[in-house]
């Protein structure tokens, strides 16, 4: 059978994912996966539209007109929301800019592709988050005597505690934890940026117990993943989504407000941010806490240190996991001045 010659487009795709995104742009594996999904959908659509195989597509086949048709396909056939549609287009724009350097002879058509606009309204949707009572109901719905229940309880407690992205939590290894006072966790976010987050002593105890009951799978205990499935394999984002839906269904029998909410793993991150904000924690601290580059385009955020995060944490929900009231700390004048000097 005659081998298919690799096209210019195929060569560019390989360079884009093997060198440009991870090496030159320093993007995280999670972000690269999102770009991959967008291009896979586009290439499959373009192949059907051009009536040829994916491996036969050329750079010229990625025209502005075809991309517009692809976006319409996302709307009508895949029923994607505005945010997802814009995220797909953003990945395509990045690839198009990369192609302009690789193949300048296609500059005119690629510039027309780059002019395909994003759709407004993606930021108008309300943020779904959990109130304190709903958080407690969710955690109490988990059957903790079972090994899977202990894992789920520790997982969601840590996510509420830190406001971390799902993949940040799933990537955690034992070496990323400090379970002795002062307890904290090291998270690696977008762009490989590392941040430290304080954790409640109760959360530390949950993680310590989880580690004690875990089955070893390698020679170095410190390199063991923190959260795995029943087969000892890495827990996935889709697995977390399934577990959250399962426990939300149980919790909604006790708390009726949960029945009308579309809760997903990122809602836990929203919940942490909203509750921090309600407790009077400043935007700069929240930004550093949950790993946002910014919470608004009009503000510049200072770098909050681990002590300020810990002081803010002691004022936040939920009662199920929070330390005793007598142990809570308040930010006094001296603390505030010290923090300002460290900005």
CATH architectural group of the largest domain: Orthogonal Bundle
At the first level of CATH, the class of the largest domain is Mainly Alpha
Rg (CA only): 23 Å
Structural class by sheet pairing and helices: mainly alpha
Strand content: under 5%
Q: Which stretches of 5+ consecutive residues score pLDDT under 50?
A: 295-305, 324-343
* Fraction of residues in H or I helices: 40-55%
Largest sheet: 3 strands, antiparallel
Strand order of the largest sheet: 1-2-3
- For CATH, the homologous superfamily of the largest domain is named as Intergrase catalytic core
Order of helices and strands: HHHHHHHHEEEHHHHHH
If you had to describe this structure to a student in words, what would you say it looks like?
This protein has 343 residues and is mainly alpha-helical. The chain folds into two domains: 8-114, DNA polymerase, domain 1 (Orthogonal Bundle); 132-342, Intergrase catalytic core (hpI Integrase, Chain A), CATH 1.10.443. The chain contains 14 helices and three strands. The chain has helices spanning 8-24, 29-50, 64-76, 82-102, 107-114, 132-140, 147-162, 166-170, 201-213, 237-251, 265-278, 283-290, 306-313, 333-342, and strands spanning 177-178, 184-188, 194-198. Strands 1-2-3 form a three-stranded antiparallel sheet. Strand 2 (184-188) and strand 3 (194-198) form a beta hairpin. Helix 1 crosses helix 4 and helix 6 (132-140) packs across helix 10 (237-251). Residues 295-305 and 324-343 have low confidence and may be disordered.
């Amino acid at each position: 059978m005659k081998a298919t010659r690799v096209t210019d487009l195929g060569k560019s795709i390989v360079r884009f994912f093997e060198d440009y995104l991870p090496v030159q742009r320093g993007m995280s594996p999670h972000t690269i996966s999102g770009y991959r999904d967008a291009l896979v959908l586009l290439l499959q659509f373009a192949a059907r539209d051009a009536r040829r195989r994916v491996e036969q597509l050329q750079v010229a086949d990625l025209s502005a007109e075809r991309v517009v048709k692809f976006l319409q396909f996302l709307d009508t056939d895949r029923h994607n929301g505005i945010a997802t549609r814009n995220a797909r287009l953003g990945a395509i724009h990045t690839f198009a800019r990369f192609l302009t350097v690789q193949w300048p002879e296609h500059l005119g058509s690629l510039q027309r592709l780059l002019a395909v606009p994003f759709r407004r309204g993606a930021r108008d949707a309300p943020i779904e988050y959990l109130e304190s009572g709903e958080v407690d109901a969710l955690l109490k719905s988990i059957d903790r005597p079972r090994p899977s229940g202990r894992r789920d309880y520790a997982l969601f407690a840590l996510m509420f505690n830190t406001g971390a992205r799902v993949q940040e939590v799933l990537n955690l290894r034992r070496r990323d934890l400090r379970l002795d006072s002062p307890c904290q966790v090291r998270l690696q976010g977008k762009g490989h940026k590392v941040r430290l987050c304080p954790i409640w002593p109760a959360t530390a105890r949950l993680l310590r117990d989880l580690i004690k009951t875990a089955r070893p799978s390698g020679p170095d205990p410190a390199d063991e993943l923190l959260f795995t499935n029943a087969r000892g394999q890495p827990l996935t984002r889709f697995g977390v989504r399934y577990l959250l839906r399962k426990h939300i269904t149980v919790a909604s029998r006790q708390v009726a407000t949960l029945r009308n909410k579309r809760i997903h793993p990122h809602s836990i991150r929203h919940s942490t941010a909203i509750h921090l904000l309600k407790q009077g924690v400043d935007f700069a601290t929240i930004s550093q806490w949950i790993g946002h580059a910014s919470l608004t385009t009009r503000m510049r955020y200072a770098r909050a240190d681990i002590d300020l995060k810990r002081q803010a944490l002691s004022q936040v929900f939920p009662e199920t996991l929070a330390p005793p009231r007598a142990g809570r700390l308040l930010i006094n004048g001296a603390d505030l001045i010290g923090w300002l000097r460290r900005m």
